[in-house]
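Q: what does this look like with pyridoxal-5'-phosphate bound?
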Amino acid sequence: MKYISTRGQSPEKTFTEILLGGLAPDGGLYLPKEYPPVTREELDAWRNLSYADLAYAVLSKFATDIPAEDLKAILDKTYTAEVYNKGRADSDFSQITPLRTLLPGVHILELSNGPTLAFKDMAMQLLGNLFEYALDKQNAELNILGATSGDTGSAAEYAMRGKRGIRVFMLSPNGKMSAFQRAQMYSLQDENIHNIAINGMFDDAQDMVKAVSNDHVYKATHKIGTVNSINWGRVSAQIVYYFKGYFAATQNNDEQVAFSVPSGNFGNICAGHIARMMGLPIGQLILATNENDVLDEFFRTGAYRPRGTDHTYQTSSPSMDISKASNFERFVYDLVGRDGAKVREFWSRVDAGGAFDIKGTDCWHELAKFKFSSGKSTHLDRLKTIRELWEEYGVMVDTHTADGLKVGLEQRRPGLPLICMETALPAKFEETIVEALGRLPERPKALEGIENLPQRVVVMDANVDTLKAFISANIQ
Ligand SMILES: *Cc1c(COP(=O)(O)O)cnc(C)c1O
């Protein structure tokens, strides 16, 4: 399997060659040259596999340059109930992503049983093990530098902790995260994890990361890398649970289903798109946004108009507060018939702060083939959905999953079983749960009292030279 860039001007690469990198040299994103088809016989044979075996069946089609027994061992180590046992007390952790049925034909796929209670663990845990494996082979090291306002940073730290050859330098805005989020990250005592609380806002932390990454000499000599959502390893790992969810919600492989996906950077639903392109019988992919509705606008009107960061609303589903969807280019590449020149034209406008509009073009007519629907959910919708689910089914969902359920129930085609992706547990967003229900969410046993553990964090002013000196001193 070879990988090509969405902008059509980069050399072909293998899975392990793109694993540790970011954007392609031409500024595009890597995608498989062709999506590997899944036959009906394979679907039949995969239906009853364990999560780890299913992950092997799917990912061995993409990671063709990793020897079979190595890939198998990595997946067996990653997808075990010892890692994915932090969810609800009554979840069947042996399934890794158990399906919870609310009423006939409406389900929640639990993707948040991992160590940080968010679906990002599903891919990040695998990435940690793949990175360690690849670095070991090359006898190399990697220093991951990132900025976080919560979810991504903690998922990365829990995936990379204790891994040979890897260090993490994670910047967060000092005093701006919840006590629980701070405790999740700062209580890690692993020597290879460095928490840096920046005196400033998230954007200041993000700017420092950009400044270091743009210093190409420093970046190369200090082996700086990232684990952002465009990483192909992350997208590919997410394809697996679309298969798992499909098998759990259906009786046989003639049935079709709808998935509803709380979306921000278009990473999660991009994996669903690829699963469908491979041949998984997905009848509908429902994209849910919060008040930051740039993606909903595209699917409704054909116009993609990214907003500036100063036009991004802060909402009660904060992990979907995005102004630009970094993975969206992968879908558009398929939509325009894999024409790199067309993608270059669109993104020359986007990268200059502009927009593109496909209304009335051939692409607009093609769009229906890809089976997307979309909708938007607001703070009040979120509160209402959380309340209704709790009162009617005794199930508590987090704010992002509530957005997915609201839009999913509104948009689903009659007759299709609906599978809503659970992207986080309510324990992560206590404040809004209290607002909706007047009570605190349950917290997984293992995380009770986490706020009282000793914390390991360095406070730093928003100064790039101070950051560079800190990194240099800690990689000796
Ligand atoms: C990251 C995240 C999302 C958005 O996922 P994308 O892959 O960026 O579309 C939704 N919900 C939660 C809880 C998240 O952490």
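The longest strand covers residues 166-173. The longest helix spans residues 120-138.
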